[in-house]
Amino acid sequence: MDSGKITCPWCGTLNRVSARFCISCGRRLEDLAYDGPRFLFNAREGNNSLWRYILTIILTLGASSILVGIILGVFFGIILVLSHRTFDISILFNPFYLLIVAGLVFSVAYIFLYLSVRFLHNRSFRSLINTGREIDWRRMVKGALAWFLVISVLDIIYFILSPRSFKFSFEPQSFFLLAVIALIVFPIQASFEEVFFRGYLLQALGLLSKKPILVLIVNSLIFAGLHWWNGSNPVTSLSIVISAFIIGLMLGLITLADDGIELAVGIHIINNLYVSLIHNSPDSGIGNLPSLVVTPPSPYLSPIILIVAVLIVIFILFKDRREDILKVLR
């Protein structure tokens, strides 16, 4: 390399030593000494005024739910008027209906997030996904397979040790309907949460601190706190929040270590499909699904099993990339 030039770590273009920004991709060169996750730097591409973040969060998490609620209200209102029937409130507690509504809300939230990132922040939406490479679908599959393998093996071990805890059921019609809905809704829901929490919000927090571990912890606390209402009682809710914090730490660590959310997206999607289709708990957020296996919640044991699963998956995915993990933990 020319001694009077420096190479841009993002696009590989040679620049003058005195240059502050890359002449090709426009990214900051003054951060070359930083050896942490480059993924956090993506937020510096656009406009980062506080009001833009506040408005984006309101539109994405608030307006999307309100808009879907209005649309559904109008739709049911028209149906009731035309059919001369009264509204059956029991439909609001039907798990299939709740899943469909969730799919609609997250779909609208995706649209609001995209528009906000593109036109409020003036950033590429792909900057929420990785540091510039093409979206790697193989990474998603790799993450999904690794997590599925680990939780399946742990479930088998759990069944061997405590077979009476497992209640098996299979209702073909209900299960296949659940499978169709879940295969549509959960990829939308889980990928949105990764784009928002491990992409948008994680990078936003990275503007406030250059300590990746601090950014990771704060992000995971926010993610976990929003899961409090998934439980049916305080003990279960606390267990779910602890589990969500552990999952958030894992997904955030993997995102920062890999400089992209693809692995995390694969893990999150397969996790939600697994707990809805294969192994569900009656006290979870949507507990009365016709899953293949149902077990009562174990608020004290579940987080311990989850920690074991997380450590195994991180080892599988990063066994030859120890430095990538350490750069986050420094």
From TrEMBL:
Domain Zinc-ribbon residue range list: 8-29
Protein keywords: Hydrolase, Membrane, Metalloprotease, Protease, Transmembrane, Transmembrane helix
Single GO MF descriptor: metallopeptidase activity
Entries under Pfam families matching the protein: Rce1-like, Zn_Ribbon_1
Entry's transmembrane regions: 53-84, 96-120, 141-161, 173-192, 213-229, 235-256, 300-318
Domain CAAX prenyl protease 2/Lysostaphin resistance protein A-like stretches: 178-273
Top-level taxon in the UniProt lineage: Archaea
InterPro entries: Rce1/LyrA-like_dom, Zinc_ribbon_dom
PANTHER family: MEMBRANE-ASSOCIATED PROTEASE-RELATED, PROTEASE
Entry protein name: CPBP family intramembrane metalloprotease
